[in-house]
Write a structure and sequence with these properties.
The complex is a heterodimer of chains A (331) and B (523).
Chain A (H helix, E strand, L loop, with lengths): L1 H11 L22 E3 L12 H12 L9 E3 L12 E5 L10 H12 L3 E5 L22 H10 L6 E2 L17 H4 L10 H11 L8 E5 L2 E7 L20 E5 L4 H7 L5 E6 L5 E6 L7 E3 L5 E7 L2 H24 L1
Parallel strand pairs in A: 1-2, 1-3, 3-4, 4-7
Antiparallel strand pairs in A: 5-6, 6-7, 8-12, 9-10, 10-11, 11-12
Chain B lengths: L1 H15 L28 H12 L4 H11 L5 H10 L5 H16 L7 H8 L7 H9 L1 H8 L3 E7 L2 E7 L5 H10 L5 H9 L10 H7 L5 H9 L8 H10 L5 H15 L4 H9 L5 H13 L6 H13 L6 H8 L5 H10 L5 H15 L5 H4 L8 H11 L8 H8 L4 H10 L5 H12 L4 H14 L4 H8 L5 H13 L1 H14 L4 H12 L6
Antiparallel strand pairs in B: 1-2
Helix pairs in contact in B: 2-3, 3-5, 4-5, 5-7, 6-8, 7-10, 10-12, 12-14, 14-15, 14-16, 15-16, 16-17, 16-18, 17-19, 19-20, 20-22, 23-24, 23-25, 24-26, 26-28, 27-28, 28-29, 28-30, 29-30
The chains are: A alpha/beta (331), B mainly alpha (523).
């Protein structure tokens, strides 16, 4: 950690990929520019403040020098792709996953030359349907992404990242603290039930569900559930938009009660970290109600919102985003 | 013999039907491995709610808790009223589960506008458990619709029916609870109450406001600063704002700048706060405050202008606070123009392009080619196009050196702009430069040059266009055709001639259509 803090300011003064990616044409010492793929047309732009806010956050806390204006490209055949080392795509913003053969070739070449692709919302549980705002920790890439990458790297599947992967400790380690949230020492962070679930199951030690593809032995492409919703800040530095928590809760005799309770909806299967499947119970028009876990345990979903919960979630996503981008830069 | 025949028949029959499937009878159970899984037996809604009601009255805390959690999944009137029972439970866990389940009902669209119901929920803002108070205080915007509903009550006075209106006020005991909650021990509750005080029509007295402006929690302070407009002239409140102008948190000081800017128009006292903040330790805050002071028409000291310039040059891009300071620079007059000029060499492309646009517009820089010509060598295409948009249509007549600089550029968009600029150049300049543009490697540059030549009718233009019809690039052929169509007198004959010799090319098709539209006989 201390080494990283020392190295980052040095790295920020020069390109990390001197051979593969060119310097600016004027030869000046420049900031690192993150590219974002945004197709042309009438798109619904999701979380427009997110990426610039995260870049500012990293500049402030990690002492790197990212250009706060992402470089938007409309196609993967854009020649500027090869001038910048990191490409960010919010998969929920893409109108479709139709990439031409030329684009796939360019992407393959980019990743093989040392580029890094971060697919935000590249994981999306099936039960979320058209409700694109939710983040759910499933452990496999969304089917459209899988299909797309079968054309880019047919021989390489997405592999889940272990909880002890160094990406989770690149700069920040563990969950947000009172200091991150700017709370007083005695201030309570989260309701007890929420905090216990978050620390033990939702984000243990600040980890999250990520899947990736290695190219030439290097993690070159990473997909995660949507994280951008946690990065935005308004001009006074307050986090936007508010985020609530989905928590699994139990109580006495729930295994018996939920087996019998009235239910008239659909069920969906979602892959867990251990490769087994959770069965999610969803009623039409409502958020998921409860889950049957492969261990045979039944638990109910409860939703918690509020200032402290939202701040906590934003702080977590910003720390995770920082770890991901700095990992991309260092590797 | 008869027995033998019977035996034979029975043997034959057994051979014939041995491979046929054996169909089970209708009432016979199918084998386990051939059946599809049966859906689990489920009770209906009424029975589930009956069960939850029974458990909610149980003496076992775990049962009551489970019932309160489960009821959240059934957003209907009966479920809501059962949860109200849970709000009075002795166990804090059950009360928390009940309020969270009620919120789920709200989220699922269950109408909860009944006054008695919302009053019952809001009364829990005085609950001993902090988590219940937090949830209830966060619910105020939703509860207020029912809480603040006016109505009519009917009473009998001396045997006579009397109707009286019930004002849309908070019930007296709830009003007291709400006022107390403004100074709750928990900062989240204080913050929520202050944020939503107007939903409950609570009065915020200057004493309460100044107490909240001294809060330890930054979240509460931010919300309290938003409410300074309620008592801007109160001495204690103003004093607190002055103190917060030197708060340790930069976010709070930023908020003070914003509050002082809004109040500064009507209450000049707050301009003094901004003037003090121009000397803030943070260059960012100092720059923000200075720009706001300049917007009030005051002249800034040189050292402050230097701070603004340093802040903008150090910034990483044009976003958030930087943006508001950037656009505020125009209030600084000449100093502002000078800062815009120095920002044209900033590392951020977006900032450079905006700086060029502002600088050229404010100084009418398009009249001075020595100012903008170097800018067109910027590496970022967005910066170049922003400058070109500002220049287009405003340029004075350009001399040959300037045109030469444009057409020698490494960027095709700039060379195409050079071709456009020939329109306002002297004929000698056009004569001396157009050939270089005609042999440019970029189609856009060549096509633009052709169109310009057709407009200017430069000597020999017809020959050039005639030759260009034979070019391999369709864009060039198209530009040549358009030029010849504009000048019909010379152009039609050339086009007809081309058609007679090249009848099957793609451009021939377009020429044919255009000539037919002009009712010109085809060859």
């Amino acid at each position: 950690m201390r080494l990283v803090r020392f190295i980052l300011p040095l790295l920020s003064c020069a390109w990390v990929f001197p051979n593969s990616f060119g310097q600016s044409e004027q030869g000046e010492i420049s900031s690192i520019r993150i590219m974002q793929l945004r197709r042309d047309g009438n798109l619904r732009i999701r979380y427009p403040d997110a990426l610039p806010s995260l870049l500012a956050f990293m500049n402030e806390h990690a002492r790197v020098k990212f250009d706060q204006d992402p470089l938007f490209i409309q196609s993967l055949t854009d020649e500027r792709l090869f001038e910048n080392p990191i490409l960010y795509i919010n998969c929920d913003e893409l109108p479709n996953f139709d990439f031409s053969m030329e684009e796939n070739d360019a992407l393959r070449q980019y990743l093989e030359l040392g580029g890094f692709l971060y697919l935000d919302a590249g994981i999306k549980a099936s039960f979320l349907g058209t409700d694109l705002g939710h983040s759910y920790a499933a452990w496999e890439e969304r089917p459209e992404v899988g299909e797309w990458f079968s054309q880019v790297f047919p021989e390489k599947p997405f592999i889940p990242l272990a909880r002890n992967h160094e990406i989770f400790r690149t700069f920040y380690k563990g969950l947000p603290t009172n200091e991150d949230l700017q709370l007083e020492k005695e201030q309570k962070r989260l309701p007890e039930t929420v905090l216990t679930f978050v620390e033990q199951e939702k984000w243990p030690q600040g980890t999250y569900s990520l899947v990736g593809i290695k190219v030439n032995g290097r993690l070159a492409c990473l997909a995660s559930p949507i994280c951008a919703m946690g990065w935005g800040r308004d001009e006074f530095g307050s986090w936007i938009p508010p985020i609530s928590f989905r928590i699994r809760e139990s109580a006495d005799n729930f295994d018996e009660t939920l087996k019998l309770a009235s239910f008239a909806g659909n069920t969906f299967e979602v892959t867990r970290e251990d490769g087994l499947q959770d069965e999610i119970f969803v009623m039409p028009g409502q958020r998921p109600l409860w889950v049957r876990e492969p261990t045979g345990r039944w638990r109910i979903f409860k939703y918690y919102s509020g200032e402290e919960i939202s701040n906590y979630a934003h702080s977590f996503y910003a720390r995770l985003g920082t770890n991901i981008f700095l990992y991309a830069l260092l590797n | 013999m008869k027995c033998f025949v019977c035996l034979l028949w029975s043997l034959l029959a057994s051979f014939c039907f041995a491979e046929s499937p054996v169909l089970p009878l209708a009432n016979e159970p199918a084998e386990q491995n051939q059946s599809s899984p049966l859906p689990p037996p489920r009770s209906n809604l009424e029975k589930t709610l009956d069960e939850a009601e029974k458990k909610l009255k149980s003496s076992i805390e775990g049962d009551r808790l489970a019932a309160a959690k489960l009821l959240g999944k059934y957003p209907n009137a009966r479920g809501t009223y059962l949860l109200l029972v849970g709000l009075d439970d002795d166990s804090a866990l059950v009360r928390r589960a009940s309020i969270v389940s009620l919120i789920e009902h709200f989220d699922s669209g269950q109408p909860m506008y009944d006054r008695a119901l919302t009053e019952k929920i809001f009364s829990k803002v005085g609950d001993p458990d902090v988590e219940v108070r937090r949830e209830v205080s966060a619910l105020i915007p939703r509860l207020s619709i029912g809480l603040m509903r006016s109505g009519v009550e009917r009473t009998v006075v001396n045997g006579r029916m009397v109707f009286r209106s019930v004002p849309a006020n908070l019930r007296e005991d709830l009003f007291k609870l709400a006022v107390d909650a403004l100074l709750d021990v928990d900062s989240i509750v204080r913050q929520n109450m202050l944020k939503y005080y107007s939903n409950l029509r609570l009065p915020i007295f200057p004493e309460t406001l100044s107490a909240l402006l001294s809060d330890k929690d930054t979240g509460v302070l931010l919300v309290a600063l938003d409410k300074v407009r309620l008592h801007p002239q109160d001495d204690t409140v103003f004093e607190k704002v002055e103190q917060l102008a030197s708060h340790r948190e930069i976010g709070i000081r930023t908020k003070v700048v914003s509050v002082a800017r809004q109040l500064g128009h009507a209450h000049p006292l707050y301009r003094g706060v901004l003037r003090k903040m121009m000397m803030d330790d943070s260059i960012e805050i100092a720059a923000q405050a200075a720009v706001e002071v300049a917007r009030f028409g005051e002249k800034l000291p040189d050292e402050v202008v230097a701070k603004i310039e340093a802040f903008l040059l150090q910034s990483h891009g044009l976003s958030g606070k930087v943006e508001s300071i950037f656009y505020g620079l125009s209030s600084l007059g000449e100093d502002g123009n000078r800062i815009y000029k120095s920002l044209t060499s900033h590392a951020s492309g977006k900032l450079r392009s905006q700086a060029w646009q502002r600088y050229l517009s404010l100084t009418e820089g398009w009249n001075a080619p020595h100012v903008w010509l170097p800018a067109l060598s910027d590496r970022d295409v967005d910066v170049r196009s922003a400058i070109l948009v500002t220049l287009r249509g405003r340029l004075p007549e350009l001399g040959e050196p300037e045109i030469r600089t444009l057409i020698d550029s490494r960027y095709p968009d700039v060379r195409a702009f050079g071709a456009e600029s020939l329109l306002s150049a002297q004929p000698d300049t056009v004569e001396n430069t157009f050939f270089d543009l005609l042999i440019d490697e970029d189609n856009l540059v060549r096509a633009t040059t052709l169109r310009v030549l057709a407009k200017l009718k430069t000597q020999g233009w017809e020959k050039i266009h005639q030759q260009s019809l034979l070019d391999q690039e369709y864009a060039i052929q198209r530009a040549a055709m358009d030029g010849l169509l504009i000048n019909r007198q010379e152009g039609i004959a050339i086009l007809r001639d081309y058609l007679s010799k090249n009848s099957s090319t793609k451009i021939a098709q377009a020429i044919r259509i255009e000539l037919q539209r002009m009712r010109v006989p085809l060859p």
